[in-house]
Design goal:
The complex is a heterodimer. Chain A has five helices and four strands, in the order ααβαβαβαβ. By secondary structure, chain A is of the alpha+beta class. Chain A has one domain: 60s Ribosomal Protein L30, Chain: A (2-Layer Sandwich), CATH 3.30.1330.60. A four-stranded mixed β-sheet of chain A has the order 1-4-2-3. In chain A, helix 4 links the parallel strand 2 and strand 3. The radius of gyration of chain A is 15 Å and the shape is globular. The N terminus of chain A is likely disordered. Chain B is mainly beta. Chain B folds into two domains: 158 residues, Rossmann fold (3-Layer(aba) Sandwich); 265 residues, 6 Propeller (Neuraminidase). Chain B starts with a helix and ends in a 5-residue tail after the last strand. Classes of the chains: A alpha+beta, B mainly beta. At the A-B interface, helix 4 and strand 3 of A face strand 16 of B.
Protein backbone atom coordinates (compact mmCIF):
# COMPACT_ATOMS: atom_id res chain seq x y z
CA UNK A 1 0.00 0.00 0.00
CA UNK A 2 2.70 2.38 1.07
CA UNK A 3 4.81 1.12 -1.84
CA UNK A 4 1.98 1.95 -4.22
CA UNK A 5 1.69 5.47 -2.89
CA UNK A 6 5.41 5.84 -3.31
CA UNK A 7 5.19 4.77 -6.96
CA UNK A 8 2.50 7.32 -7.65
CA UNK A 9 4.60 10.05 -6.09
CA UNK A 10 7.55 8.81 -8.14
CA UNK A 11 5.66 9.16 -11.41
CA UNK A 12 4.30 12.58 -10.48
CA UNK A 13 7.73 13.69 -9.43
CA UNK A 14 9.56 12.77 -12.60
CA UNK A 15 8.26 15.71 -14.59
CA UNK A 16 9.07 18.13 -11.84
CA UNK A 17 12.49 16.72 -11.26
CA UNK A 18 14.36 18.58 -13.97
CA UNK A 19 12.94 21.84 -12.68
CA UNK A 20 14.09 20.93 -9.20
CA UNK A 21 17.61 20.44 -10.37
CA UNK A 22 17.65 23.73 -12.23
CA UNK A 23 17.32 25.38 -8.86
CA UNK A 24 20.60 23.80 -7.96
CA UNK A 25 18.97 22.54 -4.82
CA UNK A 26 19.05 26.07 -3.45
CA UNK A 27 20.43 26.15 0.04
CA UNK A 28 19.64 22.66 1.09
CA UNK A 29 21.42 22.36 4.42
CA UNK A 30 22.41 18.93 3.25
CA UNK A 31 25.66 17.29 2.42
CA UNK A 32 24.00 15.94 -0.68
CA UNK A 33 22.76 19.19 -2.14
CA UNK A 34 20.63 18.36 -5.14
CA UNK A 35 21.52 14.72 -4.97
CA UNK A 36 24.40 14.64 -7.42
CA UNK A 37 24.27 13.92 -11.13
CA UNK A 38 25.07 10.26 -10.64
CA UNK A 39 21.66 9.72 -9.12
CA UNK A 40 19.68 10.98 -12.08
CA UNK A 41 20.27 9.80 -15.67
CA UNK A 42 19.82 11.82 -18.84
CA UNK A 43 16.13 10.91 -19.04
CA UNK A 44 15.56 12.27 -15.57
CA UNK A 45 15.02 8.83 -14.06
CA UNK A 46 15.97 8.61 -10.44
CA UNK A 47 18.23 5.81 -9.32
CA UNK A 48 16.32 3.73 -6.79
CA UNK A 49 17.85 3.90 -3.34
CA UNK A 50 19.68 7.14 -4.09
CA UNK A 51 19.53 10.36 -2.06
CA UNK A 52 17.96 11.99 -5.12
CA UNK A 53 15.09 9.55 -4.93
CA UNK A 54 14.69 10.34 -1.24
CA UNK A 55 14.69 14.08 -1.85
CA UNK A 56 12.42 14.24 -4.84
CA UNK A 57 10.28 11.12 -5.11
CA UNK A 58 9.86 10.46 -1.41
CA UNK A 59 10.05 14.05 -0.20
CA UNK A 60 12.73 15.02 2.30
CA UNK A 61 10.79 17.70 4.14
CA UNK A 62 7.55 18.38 5.95
CA UNK A 63 5.98 21.76 6.75
CA UNK A 64 4.42 23.10 9.95
CA UNK A 65 1.81 25.63 11.00
CA UNK A 66 2.70 28.88 12.77
CA UNK A 67 4.29 28.08 16.16
CA UNK A 68 3.27 24.43 15.68
CA UNK A 69 5.22 21.21 15.81
CA UNK A 70 2.34 18.77 15.21
CA UNK A 71 2.41 16.69 12.02
CA UNK A 72 -0.36 17.32 9.50
CA UNK A 73 -1.96 14.47 7.52
CA UNK A 74 0.14 15.53 4.50
CA UNK A 75 3.28 15.50 6.58
CA UNK A 76 2.46 12.03 7.84
CA UNK A 77 2.10 10.71 4.26
CA UNK A 78 5.57 12.02 3.44
CA UNK A 79 7.04 10.63 6.63
CA UNK A 80 5.41 7.23 5.97
CA UNK A 81 7.32 7.20 2.68
CA UNK A 82 10.52 8.40 4.37
CA UNK A 83 10.26 5.57 6.92
CA UNK A 84 9.77 2.96 4.18
CA UNK A 85 12.71 4.31 2.22
CA UNK A 86 14.98 4.41 5.28
CA UNK A 87 14.07 0.85 6.22
CA UNK A 88 14.83 -0.34 2.71
CA UNK A 89 18.10 1.57 2.49
CA UNK A 90 19.81 0.68 5.71
CA UNK A 91 23.19 2.11 4.68
CA UNK A 92 21.77 5.60 5.25
CA UNK A 93 21.36 7.56 8.44
CA UNK A 94 19.66 10.94 8.68
CA UNK A 95 19.87 14.22 10.53
CA UNK A 96 16.46 15.83 10.85
CA UNK A 97 16.94 19.61 10.64
CA UNK A 98 14.21 21.71 12.23
CA UNK A 99 13.62 25.28 11.08
CA UNK A 100 11.38 28.22 11.94
CA UNK A 101 10.25 31.29 10.02
CA UNK A 102 11.70 34.70 10.87
CA UNK A 103 8.65 35.80 12.85
CA UNK A 104 10.04 34.93 16.24
CA UNK A 105 12.90 35.58 18.62
CA UNK A 106 16.17 33.77 18.04
CA UNK A 107 16.27 31.52 21.11
CA UNK A 108 12.61 30.57 20.94
CA UNK A 109 12.94 29.66 17.29
CA UNK A 110 15.89 27.41 18.08
CA UNK A 111 13.78 25.56 20.63
CA UNK A 112 10.81 25.46 18.25
CA UNK A 113 12.93 24.02 15.43
CA UNK A 114 14.13 21.33 17.84
CA UNK A 115 10.53 20.45 18.68
CA UNK A 116 9.75 20.06 14.97
CA UNK A 117 12.81 17.96 14.26
CA UNK A 118 12.01 15.76 17.21
CA UNK A 119 8.36 15.34 16.14
CA UNK A 120 9.65 13.96 12.83
CA UNK A 121 12.17 11.69 14.51
CA UNK A 122 9.60 10.28 16.92
CA UNK A 123 7.16 9.61 14.09
CA UNK A 124 9.80 7.82 11.99
CA UNK A 125 10.81 5.76 15.01
CA UNK A 126 7.18 4.86 15.65
CA UNK A 127 7.09 3.42 12.13
CA UNK A 128 10.10 1.23 12.79
CA UNK A 129 13.18 3.30 11.86
CA UNK A 130 15.88 2.69 14.46
CA UNK A 131 16.30 5.75 16.68
CA UNK A 132 20.08 5.28 16.48
CA UNK A 133 19.92 6.14 12.75
CA UNK A 134 18.28 9.54 13.37
CA UNK A 135 19.78 12.67 14.86
CA UNK A 136 18.08 16.03 15.24
CA UNK A 137 19.32 19.59 15.04
CA UNK A 138 17.63 22.96 14.97
CA UNK A 139 18.65 26.00 12.95
CA UNK A 140 15.85 28.15 14.33
CA UNK A 141 15.39 31.06 11.91
CA UNK A 142 19.05 31.06 10.81
CA UNK A 143 18.63 29.25 7.49
CA UNK A 144 15.47 30.32 5.68
CA UNK A 145 14.93 28.55 2.38
CA UNK A 146 12.71 31.30 1.01
CA UNK A 147 13.76 34.83 1.83
CA UNK A 148 10.72 37.02 1.27
CA UNK A 149 8.98 38.41 4.33
CA UNK A 150 5.52 37.03 3.59
CA UNK A 151 3.50 33.98 4.52
CA UNK A 152 4.13 32.32 1.12
CA UNK A 153 7.81 32.17 2.17
CA UNK A 154 7.27 31.62 5.87
CA UNK A 155 5.16 28.50 5.21
CA UNK A 156 8.08 26.91 3.35
CA UNK A 157 10.57 27.90 6.03
CA UNK A 158 8.63 26.27 8.88
CA UNK A 159 10.05 22.91 7.99
CA UNK A 160 11.89 19.79 9.08
CA UNK A 161 14.26 18.36 6.48
CA UNK A 162 15.66 14.84 6.68
CA UNK A 163 19.23 15.05 5.42
CA UNK A 164 20.83 11.71 4.52
CA UNK A 165 24.33 10.54 5.17
CA UNK A 166 25.71 7.31 3.72
CA UNK A 167 27.53 5.14 6.23
CA UNK A 168 29.66 3.57 3.48
CA UNK A 169 31.32 6.82 2.43
CA UNK B 1 9.96 56.86 34.67
CA UNK B 2 13.67 56.27 35.01
CA UNK B 3 14.33 59.27 32.85
CA UNK B 4 12.37 61.45 35.21
CA UNK B 5 14.66 60.30 37.97
CA UNK B 6 17.61 61.17 35.80
CA UNK B 7 16.22 64.61 35.05
CA UNK B 8 15.50 65.11 38.69
CA UNK B 9 19.11 64.24 39.38
CA UNK B 10 20.26 66.94 36.98
CA UNK B 11 17.90 69.53 38.44
CA UNK B 12 18.72 68.64 42.02
CA UNK B 13 22.39 68.77 41.27
CA UNK B 14 22.10 72.15 39.66
CA UNK B 15 19.89 73.52 42.41
CA UNK B 16 22.69 72.82 44.83
CA UNK B 17 25.18 74.89 42.95
CA UNK B 18 23.01 77.47 41.27
CA UNK B 19 22.08 80.45 43.36
CA UNK B 20 21.24 83.19 40.89
CA UNK B 21 19.58 81.45 37.95
CA UNK B 22 18.22 77.92 37.62
CA UNK B 23 19.27 75.74 34.69
CA UNK B 24 16.77 75.98 31.89
CA UNK B 25 15.85 72.35 31.46
CA UNK B 26 12.44 72.14 29.85
CA UNK B 27 10.44 69.03 30.48
CA UNK B 28 7.47 68.71 28.16
CA UNK B 29 5.52 65.48 28.44
CA UNK B 30 8.66 63.50 29.08
CA UNK B 31 10.65 65.19 26.34
CA UNK B 32 13.80 66.79 27.65
CA UNK B 33 15.49 69.77 26.13
CA UNK B 34 19.11 68.70 25.87
CA UNK B 35 21.47 70.66 28.08
CA UNK B 36 23.69 72.90 25.92
CA UNK B 37 27.41 72.59 26.56
CA UNK B 38 30.61 73.99 25.08
CA UNK B 39 33.76 71.95 24.69
CA UNK B 40 36.44 74.20 23.18
CA UNK B 41 39.36 72.29 21.71
CA UNK B 42 41.60 71.07 24.50
CA UNK B 43 44.79 73.05 24.92
CA UNK B 44 47.82 71.28 23.50
CA UNK B 45 50.51 71.74 26.12
CA UNK B 46 53.36 70.41 24.00
CA UNK B 47 54.12 69.38 20.44
CA UNK B 48 52.89 65.81 21.05
CA UNK B 49 49.60 67.08 22.43
CA UNK B 50 48.86 68.98 19.20
CA UNK B 51 48.20 65.72 17.38
CA UNK B 52 45.51 64.69 19.86
CA UNK B 53 43.85 67.86 21.14
CA UNK B 54 41.26 68.19 18.42
CA UNK B 55 40.26 64.56 18.00
CA UNK B 56 40.19 63.97 21.75
CA UNK B 57 37.86 66.94 22.27
CA UNK B 58 35.63 65.75 19.43
CA UNK B 59 35.39 62.29 20.93
CA UNK B 60 34.38 63.69 24.34
CA UNK B 61 31.79 65.99 22.76
CA UNK B 62 30.44 63.17 20.58
CA UNK B 63 30.07 60.86 23.58
CA UNK B 64 28.10 63.50 25.47
CA UNK B 65 25.93 64.49 22.48
CA UNK B 66 25.22 60.83 21.65
CA UNK B 67 23.19 60.51 24.85
CA UNK B 68 20.58 62.96 23.62
CA UNK B 69 20.79 64.60 27.07
CA UNK B 70 23.34 67.18 25.99
CA UNK B 71 23.71 69.38 22.93
CA UNK B 72 27.07 70.71 21.81
CA UNK B 73 27.21 74.41 20.97
CA UNK B 74 29.15 74.81 17.70
CA UNK B 75 32.51 76.50 18.11
CA UNK B 76 31.54 79.16 15.56
CA UNK B 77 29.28 80.62 18.25
CA UNK B 78 32.08 81.02 20.79
CA UNK B 79 32.94 84.50 22.02
CA UNK B 80 35.81 83.51 24.29
CA UNK B 81 38.60 81.16 23.40
CA UNK B 82 40.48 78.95 25.82
CA UNK B 83 44.22 79.30 25.30
CA UNK B 84 45.48 78.12 28.65
CA UNK B 85 44.19 75.42 31.01
CA UNK B 86 44.68 77.64 34.05
CA UNK B 87 43.48 81.04 32.85
CA UNK B 88 40.29 82.38 34.45
CA UNK B 89 36.99 81.58 32.71
CA UNK B 90 35.05 84.49 31.24
CA UNK B 91 31.67 83.13 32.36
CA UNK B 92 29.72 86.00 30.79
CA UNK B 93 31.01 85.01 27.33
CA UNK B 94 29.72 81.43 27.80
CA UNK B 95 26.45 82.61 29.31
CA UNK B 96 25.92 84.79 26.25
CA UNK B 97 25.88 81.73 24.00
CA UNK B 98 23.78 79.82 26.55
CA UNK B 99 26.41 77.20 27.32
CA UNK B 100 25.15 75.78 30.58
CA UNK B 101 28.13 73.50 30.98
CA UNK B 102 31.67 74.21 29.85
CA UNK B 103 34.41 71.61 29.49
CA UNK B 104 37.99 72.86 29.48
CA UNK B 105 40.89 70.47 28.92
CA UNK B 106 44.53 70.14 28.08
CA UNK B 107 46.55 67.34 26.54
CA UNK B 108 50.25 66.59 26.33
CA UNK B 109 52.09 63.65 24.80
CA UNK B 110 55.78 62.80 25.16
CA UNK B 111 58.02 61.38 22.46
CA UNK B 112 58.00 58.06 24.31
CA UNK B 113 54.22 57.84 23.93
CA UNK B 114 53.11 58.92 27.40
CA UNK B 115 49.97 60.99 27.32
CA UNK B 116 48.33 63.20 29.95
CA UNK B 117 44.83 64.64 29.76
CA UNK B 118 43.59 67.24 32.26
CA UNK B 119 40.09 68.66 32.36
CA UNK B 120 37.64 70.77 34.35
CA UNK B 121 33.83 71.06 34.11
CA UNK B 122 32.07 74.34 34.83
CA UNK B 123 28.48 75.22 35.66
CA UNK B 124 28.46 78.44 33.66
CA UNK B 125 25.38 80.03 35.15
CA UNK B 126 26.65 79.66 38.69
CA UNK B 127 30.16 80.82 37.80
CA UNK B 128 31.54 77.72 39.45
CA UNK B 129 33.47 74.58 38.74
CA UNK B 130 31.59 71.27 39.05
CA UNK B 131 33.78 69.05 41.17
CA UNK B 132 37.48 69.59 40.80
CA UNK B 133 39.94 69.19 37.94
CA UNK B 134 41.04 65.68 37.04
CA UNK B 135 44.11 64.27 35.29
CA UNK B 136 44.36 60.95 33.40
CA UNK B 137 47.67 59.47 32.27
CA UNK B 138 48.18 56.73 29.74
CA UNK B 139 49.73 55.92 26.42
CA UNK B 140 48.90 57.57 23.13
CA UNK B 141 47.55 54.37 21.57
CA UNK B 142 44.85 54.40 24.25
CA UNK B 143 43.79 57.96 23.51
CA UNK B 144 40.22 57.02 22.61
CA UNK B 145 39.76 55.17 25.86
CA UNK B 146 41.11 58.16 27.80
CA UNK B 147 38.63 60.37 25.99
CA UNK B 148 35.77 58.02 26.93
CA UNK B 149 36.89 58.13 30.56
CA UNK B 150 36.87 61.94 30.48
CA UNK B 151 33.35 61.87 29.00
CA UNK B 152 32.22 59.42 31.70
CA UNK B 153 33.38 61.80 34.45
CA UNK B 154 31.62 64.75 32.80
CA UNK B 155 28.44 62.69 32.36
CA UNK B 156 28.56 61.76 36.04
CA UNK B 157 29.08 65.36 37.15
CA UNK B 158 26.16 66.57 35.05
CA UNK B 159 23.70 63.78 35.82
CA UNK B 160 24.81 62.31 39.14
CA UNK B 161 24.90 58.87 37.51
CA UNK B 162 27.71 56.61 36.37
CA UNK B 163 28.54 56.73 32.66
CA UNK B 164 28.88 54.09 29.95
CA UNK B 165 31.30 55.53 27.37
CA UNK B 166 34.34 53.48 28.43
CA UNK B 167 32.68 50.18 27.55
CA UNK B 168 32.53 47.72 24.69
CA UNK B 169 29.97 45.75 22.74
CA UNK B 170 30.36 42.17 21.60
CA UNK B 171 28.10 41.20 18.71
CA UNK B 172 27.56 38.94 15.71
CA UNK B 173 28.89 40.44 12.48
CA UNK B 174 26.77 39.32 9.53
CA UNK B 175 27.52 39.10 5.83
CA UNK B 176 26.12 37.31 2.83
CA UNK B 177 22.60 36.83 1.56
CA UNK B 178 19.70 36.19 3.83
CA UNK B 179 19.34 32.47 3.15
CA UNK B 180 23.00 31.66 3.74
CA UNK B 181 24.21 34.31 6.10
CA UNK B 182 27.78 34.17 7.40
CA UNK B 183 28.14 35.06 11.05
CA UNK B 184 31.19 35.74 13.18
CA UNK B 185 31.81 37.17 16.62
CA UNK B 186 33.19 40.69 16.85
CA UNK B 187 33.90 43.18 19.59
CA UNK B 188 34.08 46.98 19.40
CA UNK B 189 34.02 50.10 21.56
CA UNK B 190 30.50 51.31 22.40
CA UNK B 191 30.86 54.06 19.77
CA UNK B 192 31.72 51.55 17.03
CA UNK B 193 35.49 52.13 16.98
CA UNK B 194 38.21 49.45 17.20
CA UNK B 195 36.30 46.54 15.70
CA UNK B 196 38.05 43.22 16.27
CA UNK B 197 36.81 39.86 14.99
CA UNK B 198 36.89 37.04 17.53
CA UNK B 199 35.95 34.10 15.29
CA UNK B 200 35.99 33.43 11.56
CA UNK B 201 32.75 32.78 9.72
CA UNK B 202 33.30 29.04 9.16
CA UNK B 203 30.72 28.11 11.81
CA UNK B 204 27.40 29.73 12.59
CA UNK B 205 27.63 31.62 15.91
CA UNK B 206 24.89 33.21 17.98
CA UNK B 207 24.24 35.50 20.94
CA UNK B 208 27.55 36.34 22.69
CA UNK B 209 27.30 37.46 26.36
CA UNK B 210 29.93 39.17 28.54
CA UNK B 211 31.13 37.92 31.90
CA UNK B 212 30.55 40.32 34.82
CA UNK B 213 34.17 41.49 34.64
CA UNK B 214 34.09 41.68 30.85
CA UNK B 215 37.11 39.45 30.21
CA UNK B 216 35.19 36.42 28.91
CA UNK B 217 32.34 35.89 26.45
CA UNK B 218 29.82 33.06 26.29
CA UNK B 219 28.25 32.18 22.94
CA UNK B 220 26.61 29.44 20.92
CA UNK B 221 28.37 27.84 17.95
CA UNK B 222 27.53 25.15 15.38
CA UNK B 223 31.19 24.09 15.30
CA UNK B 224 30.27 20.42 15.85
CA UNK B 225 27.29 20.66 13.51
CA UNK B 226 25.03 21.00 16.52
CA UNK B 227 24.52 24.14 18.62
CA UNK B 228 26.64 24.02 21.77
CA UNK B 229 27.84 26.67 24.22
CA UNK B 230 31.41 27.97 24.33
CA UNK B 231 33.43 30.37 26.45
CA UNK B 232 35.98 32.69 24.89
CA UNK B 233 38.76 34.68 26.56
CA UNK B 234 38.60 38.17 25.02
CA UNK B 235 42.28 38.93 25.63
CA UNK B 236 43.77 35.74 24.19
CA UNK B 237 40.83 34.93 21.86
CA UNK B 238 41.08 31.31 23.01
CA UNK B 239 37.87 29.34 23.36
CA UNK B 240 36.66 26.18 24.98
CA UNK B 241 33.54 24.09 24.69
CA UNK B 242 31.39 24.03 27.83
CA UNK B 243 28.84 21.38 26.90
CA UNK B 244 28.86 18.74 24.21
CA UNK B 245 26.35 16.12 25.16
CA UNK B 246 25.54 13.76 22.31
CA UNK B 247 22.02 14.18 21.00
CA UNK B 248 21.34 17.48 22.77
CA UNK B 249 21.54 21.16 21.92
CA UNK B 250 22.78 23.80 24.35
CA UNK B 251 22.23 27.51 23.76
CA UNK B 252 21.24 30.88 25.29
CA UNK B 253 24.07 30.97 27.88
CA UNK B 254 24.57 33.81 30.37
CA UNK B 255 26.91 34.25 33.32
CA UNK B 256 25.78 34.45 36.92
CA UNK B 257 26.68 37.82 38.52
CA UNK B 258 29.66 36.23 40.35
CA UNK B 259 30.97 34.84 37.04
CA UNK B 260 31.26 31.32 38.49
CA UNK B 261 28.22 29.75 36.83
CA UNK B 262 26.47 29.73 33.50
CA UNK B 263 22.72 29.52 33.11
CA UNK B 264 21.66 28.13 29.72
CA UNK B 265 19.08 26.16 27.79
CA UNK B 266 19.48 22.48 27.06
CA UNK B 267 17.30 20.71 24.50
CA UNK B 268 16.82 16.99 24.78
CA UNK B 269 14.27 14.97 22.85
CA UNK B 270 12.62 18.13 21.54
CA UNK B 271 12.12 19.64 25.01
CA UNK B 272 14.07 22.72 26.10
CA UNK B 273 14.69 23.48 29.79
CA UNK B 274 16.98 25.74 31.85
CA UNK B 275 20.13 24.41 33.47
CA UNK B 276 22.93 25.83 35.60
CA UNK B 277 26.57 24.89 34.97
CA UNK B 278 29.15 25.39 37.70
CA UNK B 279 32.29 26.48 35.85
CA UNK B 280 34.73 25.25 38.49
CA UNK B 281 33.24 21.79 39.09
CA UNK B 282 31.62 21.23 35.71
CA UNK B 283 28.47 20.03 37.49
CA UNK B 284 25.09 20.90 36.05
CA UNK B 285 21.77 21.39 37.79
CA UNK B 286 18.38 21.38 36.12
CA UNK B 287 16.42 24.50 37.10
CA UNK B 288 13.18 23.98 35.16
CA UNK B 289 11.37 20.77 34.34
CA UNK B 290 8.40 21.20 32.06
CA UNK B 291 7.35 19.85 28.64
CA UNK B 292 7.16 23.44 27.35
CA UNK B 293 9.99 25.60 25.98
CA UNK B 294 11.99 27.32 28.73
CA UNK B 295 14.80 29.52 27.41
CA UNK B 296 16.56 32.93 27.40
CA UNK B 297 17.42 32.95 31.14
CA UNK B 298 18.96 36.07 32.75
CA UNK B 299 20.08 36.53 36.36
CA UNK B 300 19.06 39.39 38.64
CA UNK B 301 22.19 41.38 39.52
CA UNK B 302 22.09 40.11 43.12
CA UNK B 303 22.10 36.54 41.81
CA UNK B 304 18.98 35.52 43.71
CA UNK B 305 16.52 35.24 40.80
CA UNK B 306 16.34 34.32 37.13
CA UNK B 307 13.96 35.75 34.57
CA UNK B 308 13.24 33.58 31.51
CA UNK B 309 10.69 32.97 28.79
CA UNK B 310 8.36 29.99 28.56
CA UNK B 311 5.42 28.96 26.39
CA UNK B 312 3.88 26.86 29.18
CA UNK B 313 0.73 29.01 29.01
CA UNK B 314 0.44 28.41 25.26
CA UNK B 315 2.42 31.44 24.10
CA UNK B 316 5.82 32.91 24.97
CA UNK B 317 5.64 34.82 28.27
CA UNK B 318 8.09 36.01 30.92
CA UNK B 319 8.56 34.26 34.27
CA UNK B 320 10.75 34.80 37.33
CA UNK B 321 12.06 31.97 39.47
CA UNK B 322 14.59 31.54 42.26
CA UNK B 323 18.11 30.99 40.96
CA UNK B 324 17.99 27.58 42.63
CA UNK B 325 15.05 26.64 40.40
CA UNK B 326 11.58 25.52 41.39
CA UNK B 327 8.28 27.26 40.84
CA UNK B 328 8.13 30.37 38.67
CA UNK B 329 5.85 33.40 38.69
CA UNK B 330 4.55 34.82 35.43
CA UNK B 331 5.21 38.57 35.12
CA UNK B 332 4.03 39.43 31.57
CA UNK B 333 0.29 39.77 31.00
CA UNK B 334 -0.11 42.19 28.10
CA UNK B 335 -1.23 41.43 24.56
CA UNK B 336 1.14 39.39 22.42
CA UNK B 337 4.24 37.31 23.02
CA UNK B 338 7.21 38.20 25.22
CA UNK B 339 10.76 36.88 24.92
CA UNK B 340 14.49 37.49 25.53
CA UNK B 341 14.14 39.08 29.00
CA UNK B 342 17.24 40.78 30.42
CA UNK B 343 17.53 42.03 33.98
CA UNK B 344 18.88 45.59 34.20
CA UNK B 345 22.24 46.15 35.93
CA UNK B 346 20.41 48.33 38.48
CA UNK B 347 18.10 45.43 39.28
CA UNK B 348 14.92 47.45 38.97
CA UNK B 349 13.76 46.64 35.44
CA UNK B 350 13.56 43.92 32.84
CA UNK B 351 14.01 44.63 29.15
CA UNK B 352 12.33 42.29 26.66
CA UNK B 353 11.25 41.67 23.07
CA UNK B 354 7.53 41.82 22.44
CA UNK B 355 5.76 40.46 19.40
CA UNK B 356 2.24 41.68 18.78
CA UNK B 357 0.08 41.92 15.63
CA UNK B 358 2.99 41.30 13.31
CA UNK B 359 5.23 43.97 14.87
CA UNK B 360 8.21 43.60 17.17
CA UNK B 361 9.03 45.91 20.06
CA UNK B 362 11.75 46.42 22.61
CA UNK B 363 10.20 47.22 25.96
CA UNK B 364 10.91 47.53 29.66
CA UNK B 365 8.88 46.64 32.73
CA UNK B 366 9.37 46.54 36.48
CA UNK B 367 10.60 43.19 37.75
CA UNK B 368 7.06 42.38 38.92
CA UNK B 369 5.75 43.04 35.41
CA UNK B 370 4.16 46.40 36.20
CA UNK B 371 4.72 49.67 34.29
CA UNK B 372 5.33 47.99 30.95
CA UNK B 373 6.53 50.49 28.35
CA UNK B 374 7.39 49.82 24.71
CA UNK B 375 10.40 51.78 23.49
CA UNK B 376 10.55 50.79 19.81
CA UNK B 377 8.46 49.31 17.01
CA UNK B 378 9.47 47.81 13.70
CA UNK B 379 9.19 44.79 11.44
CA UNK B 380 11.72 42.97 13.65
CA UNK B 381 13.36 44.35 16.79
CA UNK B 382 14.84 41.87 19.26
CA UNK B 383 17.54 40.98 21.75
CA UNK B 384 17.92 43.95 24.14
CA UNK B 385 21.10 44.51 26.17
CA UNK B 386 21.63 47.15 28.87
CA UNK B 387 24.33 49.80 28.99
CA UNK B 388 26.37 49.37 32.19
CA UNK B 389 24.53 52.26 33.86
CA UNK B 390 21.09 50.92 32.93
CA UNK B 391 20.12 54.04 30.95
CA UNK B 392 20.44 52.84 27.36
CA UNK B 393 19.41 49.65 25.57
CA UNK B 394 21.11 48.27 22.46
CA UNK B 395 19.19 45.80 20.28
CA UNK B 396 18.99 44.18 16.83
CA UNK B 397 16.74 45.62 14.12
CA UNK B 398 16.24 43.58 10.96
CA UNK B 399 14.60 44.99 7.87
CA UNK B 400 12.14 42.90 5.90
CA UNK B 401 12.24 41.25 2.53
CA UNK B 402 14.74 39.35 0.44
CA UNK B 403 17.33 42.09 0.90
CA UNK B 404 16.64 42.47 4.60
CA UNK B 405 19.61 42.94 6.86
CA UNK B 406 20.35 43.48 10.54
CA UNK B 407 21.83 46.49 12.29
CA UNK B 408 22.41 47.37 15.92
CA UNK B 409 20.49 50.27 17.40
CA UNK B 410 20.47 52.05 20.74
CA UNK B 411 17.57 53.75 22.48
CA UNK B 412 17.36 55.26 25.93
CA UNK B 413 14.93 53.81 28.43
CA UNK B 414 12.43 56.61 27.89
CA UNK B 415 12.20 55.56 24.23
CA UNK B 416 14.09 58.65 23.05
CA UNK B 417 17.32 59.03 21.12
CA UNK B 418 17.05 56.06 18.73
CA UNK B 419 20.40 55.67 16.95
CA UNK B 420 22.19 53.22 14.68
CA UNK B 421 25.41 51.81 16.07
CA UNK B 422 28.01 51.91 13.30
CA UNK B 423 29.27 48.42 12.35
CA UNK B 424 31.40 47.32 9.39
CA UNK B 425 28.71 45.00 8.02
CA UNK B 426 25.37 43.67 9.14
CA UNK B 427 25.20 43.09 12.89
CA UNK B 428 23.01 41.35 15.45
CA UNK B 429 22.91 39.99 19.02
CA UNK B 430 24.70 42.82 20.83
CA UNK B 431 25.84 42.43 24.43
CA UNK B 432 27.16 45.41 26.37
CA UNK B 433 30.24 45.06 28.59
CA UNK B 434 30.53 46.39 32.12
CA UNK B 435 32.03 49.88 32.54
CA UNK B 436 35.79 50.08 32.17
CA UNK B 437 36.26 47.09 29.84
Amino acid sequence: MRKQALNIILVLSLAALAACNKNGGGYDNGQFGSGGNGDVNALGVVTPGSPAEFQTAVGDRVLFGVDQSSLSAEAQVILDAQASWLMENSEYVAVVEGHADEQGTREYNLALGARRANAVKEYLVSLGVAGSRLKTVSYGKERPLEICSAERCYEKNRRAVSVLDNLNF
Amino acid sequence: MKLRILIFAIVAFCAQSVSAEPLRIKITEGVVEPLPFAAPTFVAEDAGGKGFAEKLTQLVAQDLASTGLFREIPYQAYISSITSFSSPIQFSDWKAINAQALVVGAVSASASGEMVVKFRVYDVFSNAELGSGLKFSGTVDGWRRMGHKVADVIYTRLTGESGYFDSRIVFVSESGRKGARKKRLAIMDQDGANVQFLTDSADLVLAPRFSPAGERVLYTSYETGFPQIYMLDVGTVSKRSLRNDEGTMSFAPRFSPDGNSVVYSLEKGGNTDIYLLNLSTGNTKRLSDAPSIETAPSFSPDGSQIVFESDRSGTQQLYVMSSSGGSAKRISFGQGRYGTPVWSPRGDMIAFTKQNRGRFHIGVMRTDGSEERLLTASFLDEGPTWSPNGRVIAFTRETQGANGSSKLYTVDISGRNLRVLPTPDGASDAAWSPLGR
